TrEMBL record:
Source species of the chain: Mangrovicoccus algicola
Alphabetized UniProt keyword annotations: Aminotransferase, Pyridoxal phosphate, Transferase
Pfam families referenced in this protein's UniProt entry, alphabetically: Aminotran_3
Family, similarity comment: Belongs to the class-III pyridoxal-phosphate-dependent aminotransferase family.
Protein name: Aminotransferase class III-fold pyridoxal phosphate-dependent enzyme
Essential cofactor(s): pyridoxal 5'-phosphate
A GO term for molecular function: transaminase activity
Amino acid sequence: MNKSVQPNDLSAVIEADRAHLWHHLLQHKTLETKDPKIIVEGKGMRVWDQTGKEHLDAVSGGVWTVNVGYGRERIADAVREQLVKMNYFAQSAGSIPGSQFAEMLLAKMPGMSRVYYVNSGSEANEKAFKMVRQIAHKRYGGKKHKILYRERDYHGSTIACISAGGQPERNLQYGPYTPGFVEVPHCLEYRAQWDCENYGERAADAIEEVILREGPDTVGALCLEPVTAGGGVIVPPAGYWERVQEICAKYDILLHIDEVVCGMGRTGTWFGYQHYGIKPDFVTMAKGVASGYAAIACLVTTEKVFDLFKSDAEDPLDYFRDISTFGGCTAGPAAAIENMKILEEENLLANTEAMGARMMGNLHALMEKHAVIGDVRGKGLFCGAELVADRATKAPAAEKMVQAVVADCMAQGVIIGATNRSFTGFNNTLCFSPALIATPDDIDQITDAVDGALGRVFG
Ligand code: PMP
């Protein structure tokens, strides 16, 4: 239902937006002919914009974040209570919610042992990169310093993170990059790079080839998303992860799993890596940790990694000499505790699995109807539909057509996403990642909107 808004108040907000804001990921020229979109209110799966229009949010705040949905008073209450008691102290000291959330979190991550609090996914990944580099210095005379990342994966926006970023469309014009990051091939079978039977194993073997080319004694870590998000919703094929794990063990390479998107239930398990029996050395997480109610991200390590930084030596350089000022904000863990309780009490992992299956079923049905859908991929409530101009050649659908589908859905009151604008043929995947509270009706409303949009845009 549309809400009534106070146009007088909001026109001042729009004016201030136009005059002062620099929006993320936006070509500001586009605002010369239209108003910026301002999201004024949210409840459950739905948000209302400045015109009072209601939208069903199929992308959890645009970027896979608001896992438990909008308007959760109990999270706001817990944060308020914590803030008036103790809002901040640097994390060289601890905090009550910091310890409590770490304990709750690690209970969901057997084999993992230590939590390092920061503010963003990029920062969590940077901290892991720094640890890998320091381990290389402490144990291997600086040699095992290279960090492998995968084509199409994304690990954040800082210079080191884009140096570890496999989406050239995000990186171009920001060089020179940080040295010591090396790319390995992607594993998307739909756009196969090898003609073979066991594609998962073959794609993992390609990682080993890079390790051998670079020299195993120079490679310290491998950083991967369990399911690639913005790079095209890429679910690794069977056999991939088992082989990756073997390769890391064989060459003594630390495995860093980037759960910034997949973490906190998005794929139907607490963490994406848990589908595959992976034993990581580092896990980074951000978006769903507090569903956007507070800025919190975590780097989680094993005790083995932690122990490498503990010593009796007199050497003043022998510990992890790093800080994140706002890693000491208690609003983050206070919100994260309630967020996790909601996921458990409302059984949202099971809901994610069930609603994810429904979404995949609906998308497969759309694929029967619309030849423009070349492939459908997903895990839990993290789904994508790749649009192609021609199913036989798999030539990607034109970017402006993909954007027209997104705009058509928006006009229908359903916010969907599309993977990044790319010149490599991966910009053409529609993304669906609704909050984990989605109902069957919500899922059907999303796919019905896509059905209508595809019919209108592609005729
Ligand atoms: N890793 C992945 C997989 C991501 O998708 C993102 C953000 N989209 C990041 C890291 C970076 O997170 P942040 O924007 O919080 O720095």
